[in-house]
Amino acid sequence: MPLADHLRELRNRLAKGVLAILVVTIVAAFFYRDIVNFITEPVLDEIGCHQSFGELAKAKNVHCAHITVSGLLAPFTLALKVALMAGVVLASPVWLYQLWAFVAPGLHRNEKKYAYAFVAFGFPLFLGGGYLAFHVLPTTARVMIDLTPSGAENLLPLDDLLDLVTRMIVVFGLAFEMPLLLVMLNLTGVLSGRRMLGWWRGMVVGITAFAAVATPSPDPMTMLALAAPIWALYFIAVAIALINDQRRDRRAAKGPADDEASELDLTPEDIGEIEAVSASRTLPEQAGADRVNGYDDIT
Question: Most-buried pick from 113, 145, 250, 272 (CB within 10 A)?
Answer without folding.
Answer: 145
